[in-house]
Amino acid sequence: MKLIVQKFGGTSVRDAERIRNVAGIIADTYKAGNRVLAVLSAQGDTTDDLIEKAREINPRASKREMDMLLSTGEQISIALCAMALEAMGLPVVSLAAWQAGIHTTSAHSDARIKSIDAERIRRELDQNKIVLVAGFQGVSRFGDVTTLGRGGSDTSAVALAAAFRADLCQIYTDVDGVYTTDPRIVPGARKLPEITYDEMLELASQGAQVLHNRSVELAKKYHVNMEVVSSLERKPGTKVKEVVKMEKTSIAGVAKDTSMARIAVVQLEHSPGVAFRMFSLLSQASINVDAIIQSIGREDGKDISFTLPKTDVEEAVRLLEEQKDALGFEQLIVDEKIAKVSIVGAGMMSTPGVATKMFEALYDANINIQMINTSEIRVSVFIDEEDVNAAMRAVHDKFFGDQL
Ligand code: ADP
Ligand code: ASP
Ligand code: MG
Question: Among 128, 206, 358, 403, whose CB has the most other CB atoms within 10 angstroms?
Fold first, then answer.
């Protein structure tokens, strides 16, 4: 008997009809003789709506209370779906993360899964029940509910698939697979039959929201057999795996990220240790910096610009301003209207000129590049936020246009 983990995202459970549809997929899998462990997200825009409700009351609410609030969305979904399965006469139980034994760090709003107690879920599965688990949430060692970061239900599903050595982990969503870029923005995007863990991880980390990046990281680490499929149409999706059969194209896909901002620190002293002091201040506050550029040092100083998540800007500015005299800079310039567009592909390691091709596409579309940063299998550019969709289309067309 196979164990299949199935994860259903927000759009897939957005109303009663969609919950029944999901219950139907779970029921079919169960009736085909499999054990089913399903992970559900909050319905539709529930998580965004809850964030808005919190803002109306206290825009600076603690992360602990935010987690108490946001974790409720997933609990609604599993209870409703369990009711739909009960109505079909199937044995089912829904479990919140504390019941399912999903233990995390206590980093509220961005917790990491540390371990999963198999006992309760195993007991329910052994009684032939379908088990529904609330995605996105966990429990800290203090017994408090935590959340895994936006989009984290994918990670809940893959962690469970790894812990229970599931035969397959299916991520059901509102697209029928992973595309060469977001198909909602670029109509010419092509579906990939398969993609490597490494490429998928880079795409997800660079903003392709179809999978939570940590879910891919876990899938790679624990060799989880993973696929992305549509909850609305029954057709083959995309397999995420170690090695793909396809002949390598130079890039696998294009992603955008509009969650970043840029801070320019103007007129810093041009002497050793300045960058160290500045970035250690930020890292001590757990602020992750992405791209960094430094101007050529002059006698009268140098400028350093870096990008960071928009959500960390306020704190970073506060920390830097507090140390203005010690660091010796003149002023900070914050730009929250930037976006990052990235191309990802293992093939670029062996294909010269990939970055140039991307820059040419942006030049043809008259889009100005503000910063560039690269990894072995990725090139990212920072541009004006208003240009982001045009940039995605231009870059995608340049690499994939002739293959349509
Ligand atoms: P869910 O609610 O099921 O978790 P998400 O909204 O988190 O779904 O992710 C699915 C969305 O990801 C799609 O609707 C699509 O707009 C977006 N997306 C971004 N990049 C890609 C890509 N490369 N391939 C497929 N979908 C993508
Ligand atoms: N409901 C959560 C979110 O909207 C988790 C998820 O959907 O994966 O971010
Ligand atoms: Mg998602």
Answer: 358
Sole residue written with tokens 């920072």: 382
Helix (H/G/I), strand (E/B), else coil: 18: helix
Over residues 13-33, mean pLDDT: 98
Indicate if the pLDDT at residue 156 is higher than 70: yes
User: Whole-angstrom Cα distance, residue 242 to residue 346?
Assistant: 12
- The response to whether residue 42 sits with its C-beta less than 6 Å from ligand 2 reads yes
| Cβ of residue 200 lying under 6 Å from some atom of ligand 1 | no
Q: Which ligand is nearest to the CA of 10?
A: 1
Task: Give me the count of residues in the chain.
Answer: 404
| Encoded tokens for 395 | 């870059």
Which numbered atom of ligand 1 lies nearest the CA of 180?
A: 23
For 211-241, how does the pLDDT look when each residue is reduced to its tens digit (9 = 90+)?
999 999 999 999 999 999 999 999 999 999 9
Three-state DSSP at 199 gives: helix
Which ligand gives the minimal distance to the CA of 69?
A: 2
Say how far residue 169 (Cα) sits from the centre of its chain: 17
Gap from CA of 382 to ligand 3 centroid (Å): 24
